[in-house]
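Field: sequence (string)
Field: structure_tokens (string)

Example rows 1 and 2, in order.
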Amino acid sequence: MLHRYLFIFCSVLLSVQISSVQAQMNSTHFVTQGDQAYQEGHWETAIEAWEQALSLHPLAAEQVDVQVRLAAAYQTLGRQSLSFQLLDQALKNTETLNAPARRAQVLTHFSDAWLSIGDVKAALNMADEAVTLLAELAPPRVDLQAAALNAQGNVLAVLPNYLQASQAYQQAAQLAQHTQPNLALKAQINQLNVLQEEGQWAAAQALLAEVLKDLAQLPPRQHTAAAYLSTGLAAQQLSRQPALSTAQQAQARQQTVMALQQAAQTALPIQNHRTVSLAYGYLGQMYERDQRLKEAHHFTRQAIFHALQGAYPEVLYRWQWQAGRLFKAENNTLAAISAYQAAGKTLSSVQQRLDVGYRSIPPSFDEAVRPVYYGLAALLLKQADNAPNESIRQSLLRQARDTVERVKIAELQNYFNDECVQNAQQEATSLDSIDPHTAVLYPIPLQDELVVLLSIGNTLHPFRVAVTAAQLRDVVTLFRQRLQTRSTFRFMYEAQSLYDWLIRPLLPTLQQAQVDTLVFVPDGSLRTIPFSALHDGQTFLIEQFAVATTPGLNLTHPQPINWKDSHILLIGLSDGVQGYSALPNVPKELASIQQITGGEQLLNQTYTLESFKNNLEKTPYAVVHMATHGEFDADPEHTYLLTYEEKLHMNDLQALIGLSQYRQQPVELLTLSACKTAVGDDKAALGLAGVAVKAGASSVMATLWFVDDEATSMVVTDFYKNLLSTSGVTKAKALQQAQVTLLKRTHYRHPAYWGPFLLIGNWL
């Protein structure tokens, strides 16, 4: 019987081995199939084949190879999250394999992925580790060394450290010259861009000619088309350099046209529509700059066609936007609006995963997204000026406002990178139906003028001011800087200039409607300043109107609050911890507020994440007051509030405040009384503006910069006294009264003390 069992066991083992060999053969077949599809630019087909290969469970080493291939394909398609997941899995696999060469290969690709989303530090760390690992290998892996050095050069070029980047590219090209001509060319093209950044025009011209000569020797594959495309863009940049002679610029221009056309011609037979679309689109862009509109239209139409053929929305929106600019240049407003609307519609579906080019940092939100929506808004505002009747005029004005609103929503999504914005939109209430004595100001800083849309009731009033976006930004930046210097009133010139631009033209309309509250929906640099400190030459704006802000019309839920029997949680940190200074007035501040409101108190050692969570779980607090240091940064990862032992990041705050969201009484007011944002950093101010949206609170009262904590204590104490002891008073008016009370004290007259307090979100 034992022999029988042994025979059965051996048969099973043999069967498993045969099955494993068969799976391995099938896996190899799918890998080869995917490689061929990828070389031809058919990335979706390549992904399908490689996914099949991965599902057949090949050896761990081969899993890594397939995962790296898949990650590269997903990155090409702009699906960054999938790319990162695969690379993370591959890196973990290399740890179990103890395979330094494969680990270096994964690190090289990982560096590329980090760079594609703008994380230069992570990209450099991984490229450096890959280069170090490969330098220690014996025998050397020249192919992997070349790839790692090219990736390292890409990061160094972005830093920028052009000298070391150029050295890395030269080494990569030399190592890859005989075995990997495609990689050698890629490194040379990257070096060509670095030479231009350094202003080495003669060297750049010589290298461009050499690259074009080498490209002509390559077979018509996807990587050849991609190399022609990148070379064309480098030549185009060279053609616009004023340091070159007219003849040299003309030569570079001819090289641009030749390279881009060759990219399209190489990609067409293999049906690589994405590369074709990019090549034709960039040709259209070049003719647009030359104001040769007929040729620009021709190539732009071709670019749109091929982007649609391959279903590449992240490319398509760019050429739709380009078409809109071309129609605008021809004064064909209706066609321009239609093209811009198409671009906006396409963009809205892909702006979280824009794939923007050839191994470079993505363009910023301000370069890739904002101009599309603002261009459309400008056209709609122009159309409204010529509307045949008031009904159509109001409709066009609302379309313009809603178009800019999409920028605000997209920007917050881009900043927080989660679902909090969608949730806020679902709960929002239209601001068109608010109190008739409240006006909403919607500043729209266009390139050549400022448009302020004033909403009172259901009517929009447009006001045009002859100030460019650049002028506005400069004055706003100076205003913010000077406002924080308590020893002088040098900010007054900027305070009055901004008043003249944003408020004075609106005054007759505001006075006629008996408006007493202004709600600002600021954008860009305007988020960094307190509107309360604008000045008409006699008084501050806060002395004339209650003031509130909101990050977007569609992100606010204005409704009166019944404060009766409301529960209040008071949190404070007076001790100096984690490198931050002490806040000695915090105990007094909390005691004063507690005397007015009652409520639970967590101070110093009793203020931890755990105690905060426990309190929110057991009691439905309407108000959470946090007297603790807070930092708002352009990077949400560096935005946090301080607890006694650790930092409370925005995701933590969202989770904690969210504990009360499904109760009868969610958190209506979150007060942050000691936070700050960097001077002139509108992205950091965006984080502050969006904190109510992120945290899930109805409104937030916070400070733009750190204020003397005695002054802070007086303002917030008066605010709660006004809010809870006066029936029917709004949060905006309660804050106004507290600020005016402080500014009337001689010692605190300067707006550095009372100005930075902002009410964000529901002001009622």
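Row 2 begins here:
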Amino acid sequence: MTSDSLEPTGLKEQSKASAPTPGVAPVQDTSSAPKSGRAKGAASAKAKPSRATVPQGPRFAILEHVDLRVLSFTAAFLIGAVATLVLLASATFGFKGSYDGRVLPGVHVGSVDLSGATRDEAMAKLESSYTYLSQGEVTVKTPVGVTTITYQQVDRGPDTEAMADAAMAIGHSGNLMTDAASAIHSAFFGEDLPVVIRIDPTALAQRVHDLVASSAVPPQDAQATTKGGSFSITPSASGRGVDEFPIGAAILNQLTETSAPADLQAGGSFMTLQPRVDDTAAQKAIALATKMTVDVTVTWNTPPTPLPAGWTPKKWTITADQIRSWIVFGVGQDGKYEPAVDPAQVSGYLAGISGEANVPATSPSVLFDPSGKPKTLRTGNNGVGIDLGATTDLIASYLDSLATGGKTQGGIEVAVAAISPQIKPVDVTKFVIIGQQTITYFVGPSNGGGANIKVPARNLNGQVVGPGDQFSFLRGVGPIDAAHGFAMGGVILNGQSNHTGAMGGGICSASTTMFNAAAKAGLQIDERHAHFYYINRYPIGRDATVYSNGTNLWDLRWTNDTANPILIRAWTTRGSKEYITIQLWSLPTGRSVTWIGDNTGNETNIVKAAVNSPQYVTTVKPGKTYAAEVATNGFNIAVTRIVKDSNGNVIHNQTWKSQYTAVNGQLQIGTTPAPILTPTPPPTPAPTPAVILIPFLLRWRRKNDD
């Protein structure tokens, strides 16, 4: 019997794959020996059984058997692969570890093999191999002349640092897997890095400029300005000369290539030079500026926290004319000529109104007990005021937005900032003296009868300098005028002493005392100035003068660079010879201070002072003498202060150099003023007849007029 497409061939396959079912005769397999073409066809049919005729249960059994073998093989393969990767990674890491601090094998820069080199060795190899890059010259020919620029003059050469760093970076990123991959790739395939050439474009541009600039007629940019309350334009003008930029750019492009010849040629010709800013650009800038010239309302409506007593909202109006006067013109970062408000003028305006708007801080202060030890600390309160920088930016941004089409708004709320100096509460009973100094002074005209030393001591006493705050002597002593207790005193002007020539003269005894107290405390000294000549009442090389005339300002400033507030105690003593003492109190800092060179004998460039012949003056009582100048040698001295913390680390190492000028002595002797001789008046001449006739003639004329 022959089979057709409906023959259950799946049963024949099953009989070969499984044991016979008991009681059922096995079906004979005829597929192995076909006898005719039909038999071959049956075999083909058997290879592609119909889904409807294949029993599903036995077929699943066959698939499960096959899957287990595949899974077993796959698992074995994966385990082997992972093991291989682990072994490979271990080998790679071990290999890479042997190249810590060295270039991995296979890394080249250009033609130079840097395998195994340290950074310094790599730089040396690169310098040696590419030293030719710094050998050569450029000949520049223009209508105004010829010049030669050597490669060394523009600092051309191999950038060995950049190339060595790039080579060292391969396989040393810190990422294990990435570095392992880089190490494998470099070892098997190599890693080629480009040659980096170093060149100074500024030096090149300057060399070209030196050749052509002298014969050039530079172009004139158009300028927009504010004059007489309105904007105006200064027209632009073209120039003529050799354009430097394309010459420099062409040379630069060639010198950045390793193939640049050692005898490079370049040049240029005369051309019309156009201005960067033409009239059209200036007109556009003025059009933008016109949009910015509007009235601006500045408000402070948000109450400060905590609310100070008597605070009310505030409003100011900046007129359009004021805004116009603030506008300046220039080329912006985007290369466009455009208007902008001058931030200095805006900030100056805000500083003017801040005095009426700011809520001042309550300064911290300290009370001392009768023995002179700190007793109570008043921490004070922060004030609040206009943040000048932030508010300036707000106004500038608003006006800039108007220039670009933004809409006007009702007002600009000021930005505010806290005004120091609030400090944290601290137990001042544990404070100790961290620095102190006492200076002798003699009451006399040179210090305003002592007022110019006593008043600063009284004003400084009890002040508190918070952590991180800067102390200013001139700010600390307050206004120096007669209304605040100061008097006329001595000052050194043009190398001579004027004993009553300045308000507050003699105050330097107080500033010198403060300087030495702060310096001994190991604090950060920010500003100190030496006197014109040396005053022997002061530690040598450690004096500190202060001066202000409205233009020049010499101050004494130091910063509290400790973690705790510093309390100032200052006082003066009375007697024939008086003293000023300043103490600085705080928690122990653990700092130590060492002085070097602050002793007599370390002076250099000594100039001996002479004594001038006596002067006889009437400003001194007859028979009395007065030392207008004390003979004082001139010399230079350098004093160094080294401050260490509790661990021995140096935190300050400052040297103060003082150059004192020699002053000759001058003694004045009082003398009696010469008598003032009154000249004898000449005799009165006898009256002439004309003089006698004048009244008569007047009477005669009046009589006749009547």
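free_text_note (row 2): The chain has a mean pLDDT of 80.
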